[in-house]
Amino acid sequence: MGEGLIEFLCVDPSHEPHLSALSGYVTIVERAWAYCPRGAATPHDWRPIPPIALPELVKLGLGTVAQAIRDARSTDQPPASASAAASS
User: Fold this and answer.
1) What is the CA radius of gyration of the chain?
2) Which residues on adjacent β-strands are paired with residue 26?
3) Which residues of 4-14 are buried (b: 16+ CB within 10 A; e: fewer)?
């Protein structure tokens, strides 16, 4: 893990952020920081994203988080391993 940057984003459609507030859940996936915008306890679909500090992600707001989710869904990169996701 480096520098406290978020490197994975949960892209499960049911975990998209509420429109009223930016909240969420930070955990570790594959030895890197990961963020689920809904803070859901159910299984996640972790995808790598360009590293970003959580305060910067919050500052950018919901529109950016939603766009990052759409971008991560559209990449050809496979989701993080099931064993890593299960540990969160």
Assistant:
1) 12
2) 35
3) ebbbbbbbbee
Q: How far apart are CA 71 and CA 84, in angstroms?
A: 22
Q: Angle at the Cα of 27 (from 23 to 33), degrees rounded to 5?
A: 100
Q: What is the mean pLDDT of residues 18-36?
A: 79
Q: pTM surpassing 0.85?
A: no
State which H helix or E strand residue 46 sits in.
strand 46-53
Contacts of residue 64, defined as CB under 8 A and 6 or more positions apart, other chains included, come to 57
42-83 pLDDT, tens digit each: 788 888 888 988 888 777 765 666 676 677 667 655 666 544
For 57, the token pair is 């992600």
The residue written with tokens 């991560």 in the block is 72
Residue 50 main-chain phi, psi, to 5 deg: -60, 130
Helix, strand or coil for residue 44?
A: coil
Phi, psi of 13 (to 5 degrees): -55, -30
